[in-house]
């Protein structure tokens, strides 16, 4: 992944745009409660068992909140976004080795910056960034290196991808489920088209499955669901909850779905022409 000077300027500008807002965003919402948690591993195990299965996100958010220098913390958070968008831009070219990232990165950054329906909560909020941005980095980096190394796997690459796969699976609920389905698709395609490194690919995908199980089946999730504030929600039929989520909660996200689709078509088209 060679980066020349001209492309570096693009990344620096992207970083500066994110940092300019991140550095002026105060702590809010769950930042306060998670900042009170110590870095003691046993406290986070207790949190995992009693309230939340997002162990990776919860622990990393706590680490970020314990960085006293707010400028450093904001810089780390801003750099995280640039790296994520880089991997998203490079993902279509991971298997081919084509270097079109410099043309795709500005487009993806613009889409992410201008049309993210929840930019504040997923980027500038520290706990939100740990729950959605950092975990997404694990997901896209796993996919990138899996596609890049699928025909040249060795024990070191396999160990690295297995570790990242577990982290990606234990990211957040929606991402872990989507990634698990994608891994099933990868295994199925490998069975049909090429069985080279099939055992290694199955092993790597099993890391995602293990991480997803640790997240979704955590005792904390079940304990949290028993809270009195969720009784009315769980009294509704599953279909009713699903339709409510689509119609009421995610209406803004679906408003921008057409733009995301256009971006995917653009990337795929540029990849095919290259």
From TrEMBL:
Alphabetical keyword list: Membrane, Transmembrane, Transmembrane helix
Pfam family, one: DUF6056
Keyword RNA-binding: no
Tree of life domain: Bacteria
Stretches that traverse the bilayer: 7-27, 70-91, 103-119, 125-147, 159-192, 198-217
Coiled coil (residue ranges): none
Protein name per its UniProtKB record: Uncharacterized protein
Species annotation: Escherichia coli
